[in-house]
Amino acid sequence: xxxxxxxxxxxxxxxxxxxxxxxxxxDKLAEELGSEMGTFxxxxxxxHFANQDKFxxxxxxxxxxGEKFVLVKPQTYMNLSGTAVQKIMKYYDLTPxxxxxxxxxxxxxxxxxxxxxxxxxxxxxxxxxxxxxxGSDQFxxxxxxxxxxxxxxxxxxxxxxxxxxxxxDELNIVxxxxxxxxxxxxxxxxxxxxIPAHTLSVES
Length: 204
Hints:
The chain is an alpha/beta fold. It has helices at about 20-35, 80-90, 125-135, 150-155, 160, 170-190; strands spanning about 1-5, 50, 55-65, 65-75, 100-110, 110-115, 140-145, 200.
């Protein structure tokens, strides 16, 4: 079993913003798993995430090829993500090695991503809150680059930049990045194997 948590901020106001790259990954993974299971109804784009107040999260449970996945989008807002993660891990009786956290990374350029097994948060406050609340950094983290190659990021404070929206071209690249991440990670997830550390870069 794997708990896969995408970090982001809830609400339409934050849809398409750089800070919500984790939500975007989990949504796409749900879509991919739903396609493999053949569970879509006509007109559906992805399986439905249920809002569960007791976990302060939107949650989707999926079983694919005999393996169970719990996909999560915390609704606590980014900086308190650890509260939701802890509640869910306690409910499912999970350990950090069964957790995968997906977040944006302002120090990585759009089109790049990194998978690591431990280490610091790199200043990502949602990821740091997960580490603080769990008291452990021994979990897989997938970090999706959001840094712009333009001068936009130089004109904005980091707090404002991460809440800005991707340009159309950037969003296309981020979509490619997420698709390649899922293509890389899914075979390991379906075999309940630990995802190897990896650095990914897509061409723009």
